């Protein structure tokens, strides 16, 4: 593999990374403006890893890429069910006839987001955010926004092949081992090829930005941060000099130092929150302590989920206690040491 200094691919093209692997980059309509996808040689054809956000611009880029592949698409591997990863899976499956492979938790989670459970994911999220003190103005702004999940996922595959932790997937002459992680999504799949020295990390490990760790609205008391940190520790079984192919940013080496940095980042966030909770505070009260930059309507959803995740973690460790106020807002306060 070449050193991770190769320039990102231009729209509608792919860049070779060695061992036949090719890098594809698709646009996103957000501040985080791209997602990386990967092409793996599979016999005389190609396996696609992740599919991009379901917008016409990305479809046009795929049209150009598919025409130049020189072989059929043999399978579609999806790391997780967020729109920038699964958004065009059904469209690509229909165009190519290739099967879609993903974990059960991600397939079911995507179906739940798309179809709802008696109501939309947005209603569930707003109920959670209301409990944690988000202002009425922000609630109205989020409620007025279009359904961002269906906006990025026009359709979902109706059937799939299931992959599980430890599965060994044959892709051409290579074998890729499935590493399931938690915290960012229900059952996020990373793919490690020991022979090639490559780890497709999806969103679980990114080179410069931190993965969003949010509390799911249907499981509001869950300690998702603990699940994420435990997932990172399991990734230490992958050799440090492995080339990491992340979903955002550039390929990089130095997996273990990056795992250290991510753990340190979350430890810092926890210290900041605990210090800020000497008086009872809601998650919404604490956004300014965690995020220095202004947040837009899209980012506030992730920011609230992240704040709640860290507060839940501190509560689970006995560092904070929570109380429901007469106004219906949940607030957290540091547990005082006995005198």
Query: Could you tell me the strand content as a percent range?
Result: 15-25%
**Can you identify the CATH superfamily of one domain?**
Ribonuclease Z/Hydroxyacylglutathione hydrolase-like
Largest sheet: 7 strands, mixed
Kindly provide the radius of gyration, computed on alpha-carbon positions and rounded to a whole number of angstroms. Answer: 21 Å
Task: Please mark out the parts with pLDDT under 50 across 5 or more consecutive residues, or reply none.
Answer: none
Side-by-side strand order of the widest sheet: 1-2-3-4-5-6-7
| Secondary-structure content class | alpha/beta
Report on the structure:
With about 350 residues, the protein is α/β, with parallel strands linked by helices. It has eleven helices and 14 strands. It has helices spanning about 55-65, 85, 90-95, 105-115, 120-130, 135-145, 150, 225-235, 255-275, 285-290, 295-315; strands spanning about 15-20, 20-25, 35-40, 45-50, 75, 100, 160, 170, 175-180, 190-195, 200, 245, 320-325, 330-335. A hairpin with a 6-residue loop joins strand 9 and strand 10 (about 190-195). Helix 9 packs across helix 11 (about 295-315). It starts with 13 loop residues before the first strand and ends in a 5-residue tail after the last strand.
